[in-house]
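Re: [ENG-882] Designed sequences occasionally contain unexpected residues at chain ends

Forwarding the minimal case from QA. Structure tokens:
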């Protein structure tokens, strides 16, 4: 099963569970979701009415926790840990994985020093083990570890849930892509139309050439027959003349 299919199945499961849980029970479900080793998208769970209704209740910290995993990073948690529930080890690992994805959104070359600071990793060996075992093997990123330059070159990174402030930019990007696609499609259609026109002209020219060739062939054939006919008539005239002379 590929990572996309597994994600979709997990999201569907937790959404259905969130629709039937409330209060502390829903909070425990959020902890389960944010601890799951294969789940990296949370926006669908965030949109479930029962989850939204946690706002302003005694269990609203779980809504804040879910928002953190949808949009935040390990640094965000450290800055707001006093207002959030303590994280279990699986949640810490998950949030650090998500932090790498956030960094990879804007930079494709991630310096080791920046990563170690962002992830609270004390040495290069520990950082590289984390990138290999917990990120690349998990399928959320692909890249190259460059020990000489002390950086991680990102070749692929899974996308995170869109933050509300990113929506406008995403819409603009999609509109730009759509306009570019429309222009490209129009250009392709014009080229197809031009190619069709040239093909018709080529067929017409070829037909004209073939007709001329046929006319020339017919003309040559006619001339040849006319020449042969004259030669035959001349030969018959000479033969008759010779016969008359003999008879005389």
């Amino acid at each position: 099963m590929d990572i996309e299919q597994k994600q979709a199945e997990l999201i569907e499961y937790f959404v259905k569970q969130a629709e039937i849980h409330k209060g502390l029970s829903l909070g425990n479900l959020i902890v389960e979701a944010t601890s799951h080793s294969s789940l990296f998208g949370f926006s669908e769970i965030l949109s479930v009415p029962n989850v939204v209704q946690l706002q302003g209740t005694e269990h609203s910290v779980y809504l804040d926790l879910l928002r953190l995993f949808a949009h935040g990073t390990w640094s965000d948690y450290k800055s707001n840990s006093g207002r959030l529930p303590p994280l279990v080890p699986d949640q810490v690992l998950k949030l650090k994985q998500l932090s790498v994805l956030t960094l990879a959104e804007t930079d494709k070359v991630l310096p080791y020093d920046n990563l170690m600071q962002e992830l609270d990793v004390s040495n290069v060996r520990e950082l590289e083990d984390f990138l290999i075992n917990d990120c690349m093997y998990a399928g959320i990123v692909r890249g190259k570890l460059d020990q000489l330059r002390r950086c991680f070159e990102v070749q692929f990174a899974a996308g995170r849930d869109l933050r509300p402030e990113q929506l406008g930019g995403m819409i603009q990007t999609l509109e730009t892509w759509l306009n570019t696609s429309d222009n490209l499609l129009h250009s392709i259609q014009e080229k197809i139309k031009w190619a069709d026109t040239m093909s018709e002209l080529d067929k017409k020219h070829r037909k004209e050439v073939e007709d001329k060739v046929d006319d020339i062939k017919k003309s040559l054939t006619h001339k040849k027959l006319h020449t042969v006919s004259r030669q035959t008539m001349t030969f018959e005239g000479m033969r008759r003349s010779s016969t008359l002379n003999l008879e005389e």
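QA comment: On inspection the terminal residues look reasonable. The first helix runs from residue 3 to 18. Proposing we downgrade this to a documentation issue.
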